[in-house]
Every structure is written in C-alpha cells, then in structure tokens.
Amino acid sequence: MARYEVILTKAAVKDADNIVAAGLAPKVRKLLALIEEDPFAPYPPYEKLLGNLTGLYSRRINIQHRLVYQVLTEEHRVKVLRMWSHYE
Predict the structure, then answer these.
(1) How far apart are CA 69 and CA 59, in angstroms?
(2) Structural domain boundaries of the chain?
(3) What value, to the nearest 5°, has the Cα angle with vertex 81 and ends 27 and 70?
(4) I want to staple 49 with a disulfide (CB 3.0 to 4.6 A). Which of 53, 63, 75, 83 is the partner?
(5) How far apart are CA 51 and CA 5, in angstroms?
(6) Fold for the domain defined by 5-82
(7) Is the alpha carbon torsion for 33, 34, 40, 45 positive or negative?
(8) If DSSP codes are grouped into helix, strand and coil, which group holds residue 82?
(9) Average pLDDT by consecutive 10-residue portion of the chain (88 residues)?
C-alpha cells in the first residue's frame, strides 16, 4: 500500500509548539508516522467524529489532547487539522 502524504494546517503547525513544550512530541511523531502508513490502522484506535466535525478522525495523544485529521483518499493525503486540545 502506498504511503499517504501528511499535510499540517497552520493551526496544527501552531499546536506543535505546545506539543514540544508539553513533552508530547515523541507520541505525536509516532501517530503521524502511523497515519502516513495507514490513516485507518486499527491500533491505536481512532474515532470517526460526528456533528459539525463529520468527515474528520481523531487519535488520542494523551487523556486531554487529540490529533484531528481528514483523509483525502483520492489525493492520497492526510490533512492534520489540530494536535492540541480536544476538538476545538
């Protein structure tokens, strides 16, 4: 299976500073590598988001923070929208 191109939005790039400061960078790097290989890999589990976030997915960074992303299947890209907070 071909790899997905991972793209970070401006908000996600901004979140990266908080991730580094909180010591969560190694965990986020692992999650980004995972979704680059397969954004639908079953472990660690992902959530399909609902409501105004329908079409987005999230994976847990820790108990408080989530990596929120959109899969652009046709383009073989994953757009990371946020990496900090919980669905803001």
Answers:
(1) 9
(2) 5-82
(3) 95
(4) 53
(5) 26
(6) YaeB-like fold (3.30.2310)
(7) negative
(8) strand
(9) 93 96 98 98 96 96 96 97 80
